[in-house]
Amino acid sequence: MASVLNVRYLSWQNLKESRTRFDWNAVAANKVSDMSKERITRLPIDWYNMDSKNYWRNQDTFVSVDEIAKVVELAVNDWNQVLSTSKRTKYLIFMPWEQYNNQIVGFKSACAIAKMLGRTLVLPHLGYKNPNQSLSRPFSDTDFVPSEFIWHPFEHYYDLTHLSKHLPCSFTTFDNFHSLNDGQTLRRVRYHHLGDKKTSERQLRDYYQNIARLQFNSIEYDMSAYFHLSAAEIMDLHADDDTQVLALGSLFWYYNFGILPPVKYPATEYRDYMHVEIYRRVTDSLVFVDRVQQRAAHALDGIVGVVAGNGFVAVHIRRGDYKEKCDELPIGLLERCATTLPYIRNYLKYKFPNTIQRNFLYISTNANKSEVSEIAAELGQDWGRVFFQNDLEDVRNASFLESWNSDGIESCMFDQLICAKAAYFIGNMYSSFTRHIIDIRGVSNSLLF
User: Fold this and answer.
1) Residue pLDDT, tens place only, 139-179
2) Structural domains of the chain in order of their starting residue, each with its CATH number
3) Which domain of life is it from (predicted)?
4) Of 160, 146, 90, which is closest to residue 119 (Cα–Cα)?
5) How do the residues of the chain divide into helix, strand and coil, expressed in percent and rounded to 5?
6) pTM of the predicted model, to two decimals?
7) 280-306 per-position pLDDT tens digit
């Protein structure tokens, strides 16, 4: 309607249940079913039950001043742009690439670059592969195909109030960016190649046209750009770009955050970026939404009851397509990347020789069911209890599973929060999933295979 009427349109929505006041009395006085109060007041909404729907419809919202201020700021800037083209807002948008962990690595670079260039970052989509997607397709499974992912707005997973207060770069939600730029065609999308079966022009077209719903005139190649670029190199590439929307491809480790000496591959050591101010500020601004934190908190309460105050050990075991990536490494590093079960078992026994320490072991892994059984059997020989995400009490709840298993990103976040609270964490040096956990918990008592 706004587009048809040529009206500038922005929106805000309360995404936090904690900022919502519900009126149970209004529902109780007009109940039409025998559904219990406990079920009515718990998500997910039962769309086939009138009492459930009425409870979630009868609510008052507390407005976030910080979030509204961001929308007002965007509106003022947009109005100034209408009055004077010299004051127009310049945006930076990019393609989130591969799985969730790499998408967040790219986001951290994007925010730093947007601040560097004086542009407003468009919060990207975050996506996970559709579990129901057919595996029969004419290209390799290692290819990232955006249209095979399920995508949600960034603020669906990260607290928008915290972002509004602490994210060091100027930003807008994707919906508001799209509303203000509806119908406009991007002059170009700039693309840098990260290698065969990693990035492709096809990915860019798929994401921008089918996911972002943005049309563009051309794709231009940045031949000298790869990744881990310095600030000077980024400025040389993009500072003079006069397009209103700087549209880029993957920004996975696009910026080196000033870390010296330059990173070389294959890596032989873990680089901690949290001492770099811009990286730390972006990372600290990324707070998971309430529903994810609450689920993890409930699970942690159950773990605390089991371990009786002795703390627990968490391990990240990367599987799936990771073996193929590890095969590119030389002997000596390969074992640390593609960790075998005997290697993991011996490592844990060496690091935790005291049987009291080997009480409770939490395993975060993307292994399939048969591999999970093998892991549990092998490591269970040395540990009192070996737990996986599906073993935790909350996850056994059927209604919880109904909404939980449908989202691959929330499952990752859940595991990261559990691992971040462990007394000791052992991760994989070559995994971005491990990096996010260490960014949350710090390097203290964090070990790497």
Assistant:
1) 444 578 999 999 999 999 999 999 999 999 999 999 999 98
2) 87-285 (3.40.50.11340), 290-448 (3.40.50.11350)
3) Eukaryota
4) 90
5) 45, 15, 40
6) 0.85
7) 999 999 999 998 998 888 888 877 666
